[in-house]
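User: Quick sanity check before I run a bigger batch. Here is a single chain. Can you write out its predicted 3D structure?
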Amino acid sequence: MSHDGWPPHFGARVLVLGGIRSGKSEYAESLLSGARSVRYLATALADGGDPAFADRVAAHRERRPHSWITVETYGNPAALVDALGQAAAEDTLIVDDLGGWVVNLLDRDDASVHVSRLAAAVAGCAARVVLVSPEVGLSVVPPSEAGVRFADLMGLVNQAVAAACDAVALVVAGQPVWLRGGDAAGTHVTTAQPAGAAAGAAATGAGAAAAAVAATDTGAAGATTAGAPTTVTIPSVPAIPSPEVLTPAAAAPRPSAALTESTQALPLVATGVVIGPNMDLPIPDGDAREAARDHLHLLDIPGAGLGRLTEIVLFAAGAQGRTVPLPWQQPRMLLLHGNHEGDAAAGQTPHGAALLAAQARRGEGPIGLLAAEHGVSLQIVDTATAEAIEHSPAAEQETVEGLLRYGWQLADEAVDSGVDLLVLGSCGAGAEAAAAAVVSAVTGAEVPGLLARVVSADGTVDDAAWMRRCAAVRDALHRVRGRVLPAKELLTELGGPDLAVAAGVILGATARRTPVLLDGPVGVAAGLVARDLGSQSRLWCALADTGRHPTTVLAADVLGLTPLTDLNTGLGEGAGALLALPLLRSALTLAASLPALPPLLDEPPAHLQEPEDEPDDATDPAVSRADDASIVD
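Assistant: Done. Predicted structure follows.
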């Protein structure tokens, strides 16, 4: 027996088959009773509107230990394959059950491809894994066409997965019968295949399944269990519904809940977190980052490898504390909608900004469409309107204090719900000029060099509006000249409510060890403010793209952020990050999935070696004649 009760002769991959109510799931769970941590890969929709099935899900939840973590993979056949491929050697997985996975292949023309990929993923899974699957071939042929299709495909999947596993058990009336490997004292035992043989068999089984599936219309009816105390949902791609849009009230910030991050050491008061200079915030894992760099050097990638995308892999490794970081599964965008009075908003109107926010709420426009396409939940954050900074402070100090805590709270709530990446966006009128004012105050840069040209909705360049913006920011800086502006006063005098919320989000995300993706003036200006309150926060920010906006370029340089892409799009702040997100996720997937380089050999294989030269005397006529003479003698 191993240290946690897992018999070594089980191998690393076990398939448990059984009919309905046979006890297969409970037996499979009992095999992992000694595991310290188990990830439960649920393949069925937990709430499908069937009360009887909901009762079965509840029974499964109560039976499982509360320490198990559930990962929902319903709706996307590739989600289960990805989860198996991303598992580490120290992980323990249980898949319950493959019947729910087959449901995802309803009427799909590429069912055979997914079956082959699943078999290969099981054979190559580095973790210890137990798979549960219904055995449907012991009864009469189903009376419906859909039932026949489901039974045919289920049988093919079971064959392919069984070939990829080290041990296979069949549970009948709660009694396990080992068909291969497993319990040496079982009813029927055969020798378990070694890992290499299992991998080869998996390919064969998957190929047979693919051939059979190609001749069968796929369809199904079936379901399995889901749900647990801790749940992480893997979004379905590409059939992702438009995410729920939340519009929190900005005028009355609520107190934040106590933080659960173990490294956090912030003073708490009755109204929430006290945000001030020199905050004690965590930093990314430097050892994991360097280990990730070494891992990338070992990957079988020709030429320049991942190029500039290497940086996002190292960034994610430090944030996750993993040598091989996982692609982000639950990103959320916080779209800040806060307008500014005065000439800072020259060339823009509050009505136009409201239309952009409304489009995003409906899943339309660049941000709404991209968020829905890539499975990014979207939260519209409406904030109070900032005053005209050329004449007066942008907001009251008490308002800024509250909105900093409110931004922290938004990050806190997002992480509590399972979000693993925050994206900041902005659509407020005048927000760009306010961000330029903050960056100019911090860096001393000239205002005209920070403000991009104003382009109207019809595509014309509005130089008059640009000059009015420059004058408004110049007058605002003149109003506070000679004063040293700490972070909170920067927000009070120049930034306003939307930048205060953005800075609070960055600080809150840092406290919860969650990365933030930026790509515009408001995000980087908020990053400068957050840095002055907690210097560690800049290490948790990544820059998707500058859009070649001068404010973004300068502030990113001060923060030490290198843009990961150079798209130069004008879709609006936040849209560039959403546009780049699939590319960044793909880089993480490659880093986690590509094989390592083969080991170097001391000498090439025999079939590649040069033939040895023949001895010189073999071609010497004199030697040849002497040999002939000796033969004659």
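Confidence is low (pLDDT under 50) at residues 1-5, 184-272, 622-633.

User: Great, the batch can go ahead then.
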